[in-house]
Amino acid sequence: MAPKRTGRPPKYVTGRNGRPIAGLSRHKTTGRYYATFSKPREYFGTDFDSALVRFREWESRQKGERVLVKQPIPASVDPTDANEFGRWFLTQYPALDLASRTIDTAVLGDVFWSMVRKAITQDPVLAAEKTGLPLDRLHRFKEPEPSLELRVLFDTFMKRPKEISRQSRSDYRRYWDTFVSCVGAKTIADLTPEAISRYAKTILRPYFDATKSHAWVQNQFIAVRQIVRWALKMGEDADNAQRALTLFQMLEIPQDEGEHNPQPISREHFQSWYSACDAKHKGILLTMLNAAMRQTDISRLRFFNPDGSRQVDLESGLIVTRRRKTGNVVRCCCLWDRTLRSIAEWREGKPPGEWVFENEMGSQSSALRIAEKLREYRDKAGLPKSVKIAHIRDGAYTACVAAGIDLVSVKILCGHKVGIPDAYVQRGPRMVEAACKAIEQAYFSAATK
Fold first, then answer.
1. How far apart are CA 135 and CA 137, in angstroms?
2. 5-19, 122-136, 179-193: which has the highest mean pLDDT?
């Protein structure tokens, strides 16, 4: 076994395709190209093209490579006729294969490639005519620019002018790291159909195993497309970015059966889930049902908005906030007494803070962590994994519709656009009180209130 090399790793010359040429380096001071591990050092001059050819010839000599040349036997020559074939054969190389009607001639690799180079450089027009390749127009071709590295692309995307929340930054980084790890590419040009297919299978596998949701797959695919589309928008490596976006058509998001078929959580399942939770997550579950919220909305709940206005007022029992998913539409909620008691129990003994459901450090809780804990309590309650967190919001919406609540009030509660100016909604948050009562009536009887 060859001895393990120590010291700094070698720095190879980068080829026109953006990839390193193993074994070829360039002296920083003199500008001469040389064989990296040659002793004594073998130099090939300062011209890149000439140095590359000379390096390949030298490499062939070191390895003793031989190039196999197949020369067809003319159809006019009968190889079984000794006289006829003999006359022709005397002018050819002495290696014959009658079965395939070819002559195999092995020559040293450096000799062969040297002959090819000379033939092209001496008469490029004739070389183009004989080979059918544009060898006479090579001097017109522009040297391709190096492809944009995936790491640089992500850093550029994260610095774009649009404000990105801390949670979104974390999500983008996690999604992109997964993508880069799966495709095993360094630049956009390195992306291949096989690599994209490998990534798609990695992401879809947990979805088909029912361990991840449709939204989880959708978020991953959309984030990756969005980051690569940013390169196209900024004109960075646009050709390769467009090619990558074409390859991304392989990232087909499966049809979400629950998207057009809401699955409201049953009263019994919600009660069991609620009973298995600790104080904090009891408050979270009740607020999610009461206000028809997702875990992302819960993680963003704070007592005061940045402008100083109230967002969650425990004294009046009102929530007035905005839903980012639908373009910062104002949404309102009238909290039940049981919800207020649960939040008060959770916050008992805690100093006043910014966030309603803060984490152990007193800062904003992660929506991902909230979802993980809720699933743990779901499993602890013995509920099937088919019971999803999203079913809580479906249950709230369905309870309102079943009770005959005005759809405008239901949409305001859920954070949907209704065509009413936000200012009017903010001034009259109790317009959703009937919707909130309908949800409570569906999931809690008067006896257990």
1. 5
2. 179-193
Helices (H) and strands (E) in the chain, counts: 18, 9
Yes or no: say if 405 and 315 are a contact pair by the CB < 8 Å rule: no
Instruction: Judge whether 391 and 398 are in contact, CB under 8 Å.
Output: no
**pLDDT bracket for residue 272 (50, 70, 90):** very high
| 256/30 Cα distance (integer angstroms) | 62
Q: What is the pLDDT of residue 435?
A: 94
- Say how many C-beta atoms besides its own lie within 10 A of residue 63's C-beta: 9
User: Looking at residue 124, what is its pLDDT?
Assistant: 84
CB distance 424 to 312 below 8 Å: no
The angle subtended at Cα 246 by Cα 241 and Cα 251, nearest 5°, is 110
Q: How far apart are CA 369 and CA 442, in angstroms?
A: 28
DSSP bridge partners of 20: 14
Taking residue 48's Cβ as centre, other Cβ atoms within 10 Å add up to: 17
Ranges of H-type helices in 123-237 = 124-131, 150-158, 166-183, 193-208, 214-234
* Residue 17 dihedral angles phi and psi, to the nearest 5°: -90, 5
In 10 A of CB 125, how many CB atoms? 10
Q: Helices marked H in 384-421 — which ranges?
A: 390-402, 407-414
Task: Supply 185's token pair.
Answer: 């590419």
Which residues 6+ apart lie within 8 Å of 198 measured at CB? 182, 183
Least confident stretch, 20-24, 105-109, 256-260: 256-260
Give the whole-number percent of the chain exceeding pLDDT 90.
41
For the chain, the C-alpha Rg in angstroms (whole number) is 35
* Cβ(157)–Cβ(227) below 8 Å: yes
- Are β-strands 33-35 and 66-72 bridged in parallel, bridged antiparallel, or unpaired? unpaired
Extended beta strands in 97-207, E state: 102-108
Report the greatest alpha carbon distance in the chain: 113
Distance in angstroms (rounded) separating the CA atoms of residues 246 and 253:
15
**Nearest alpha-carbon partner for 264 in 375, 414, 398:** 398
Residue 33 contacts residue 46 (beta carbons within 8 Å):
yes
**Is 274 in contact with 268 (CB distance < 8 Å)?**
no
Closest CA to 165 of 364, 7, 302: 364
Distance, CA of 343 to CA of 389 (rounded, Å): 19
Residues across the chain: 449
Residue with tokens 């991953």: 220
Is 70 exceeded by the pLDDT of residue 397? yes
**What is the C-alpha to C-alpha distance for residues 120 and 124, in angstroms, rounded to an integer?**
5
DSSP tag of 14: E
**What is the C-alpha separation between 328 and 428, in angstroms, rounded?**
18
274's tokens: 């609620």
